[in-house]
Amino acid sequence: MLGTRGVPAAYGGFETAVEEIGSRLAARGHEVTVYGDRAHPRLDEHLGMRLVHVPSLPVKQLETLSRTGIATLHAIAGPPPDAAFVFNAANAPYVSLLRARGIPVAVHVDGLEWRRAKWGGAGRAYYRWAEARSVRTADALIADAPGIADYYLREFRVPTELIRYGAPVLHRCSTAPLRALGLDAERFHLAVARFEPENHVLEIVEGYRRSSARLPLAVVGSAPYSADYTRAVRDAAAGDDRIRLLGGVWDQELLDALYAHAYTYVHGHSVGGTNPSLLRAMGAGTATIAFDVDFNREVLADDAWTFRDAEQLATALARAEADEPLVIARGLRARERAARVFRWEDVADEYERLAEELATGASMHGLGRTARRTVQNAR
């Protein structure tokens, strides 16, 4: 499993997926190797997974590519594994190297990364090229949301393996970690996101500030490469004592307490597939106010308040604070849906099935290697 920062998971959705899936496959007796960065250089095993640490260039445009490139060279230098899972379509240049070594490869494509505002013209062009390269070189493509699967079918007329993320389900969670933050259980709104334009953190802060909300807003997140955007968020929050900018939170017990005891979770992500932060809020039984895009509506089964701008968010916050019984009911329904639809055991089952199929020769390469974007969707 390569293409991520590795495990223990402490960064994003791909890392969480690697930890949840890889640990379960290891527990079933499979030999699982995870490539990652050097955050834990003395740790060579984690939850049954073998860890290999490789360096990377600390530059936004090159960090992932350099890390995965070195991981690929390491993988092809040794005995070939039965199958490889490459996370993030940006790593497409290395798929053909793995296959040339006789290693079948599935690429877990990201959620239309080229749409993210943080990338300039060259970055967006690269990600669109990488999508096509993944289609033409991989033995299988993995999509984590129906919208992503539909996109690849529409754009390239190729099938994907639809394998969702799982959700951690919390039934009891201590309120003690909240005390140090001055927050009371069920008496605050929560937003958790990297500070990036497509996550609409700025609109969330602006909308909250315009609202008549009585409960404070706790914002968890940071942006290692977006100083200007972070400054804009801070400026928008300045002078409003109701807004608590908590920065990055890596303490899992505190994160669980925040998700589980928020009055509502405000989800501003507009790009990507099935988002782990949204699933975490659902599994914690917290009602959601979500940015109005198909990905979010599908995950929530349209059982949430939605917004598209700051004014709509202000209205949604007012409606939520005025209807606590609905907030409670939506939270309970969200947790039930998370427990029923988004199960990590089911996800591991699908990865195990796909790995076994790849190891015995199954491949979409014959179809994908000649695929081109459909004319009407060309850009």
From TrEMBL:
Pfam families with a match to the protein in the record: Glyco_trans_1_4, Glyco_trans_4_4
Its taxonomic path starts at: Bacteria, Bacillati, Actinomycetota, Actinomycetes, Micrococcales
* Keywords tagged on the record: Glycosyltransferase, Transferase
Entry annotated with the keyword Transferase: yes
Which parts of the sequence belong to the Glycosyltransferase subfamily 4-like N-terminal domain? 12-163
Q: Which domain of life is it from?
A: Bacteria
What is the name attached to this protein's record? Glycosyltransferase family 1 protein
Keyword Transferase part of the UniProt annotation: yes
GO molecular function, one example? glycosyltransferase activity
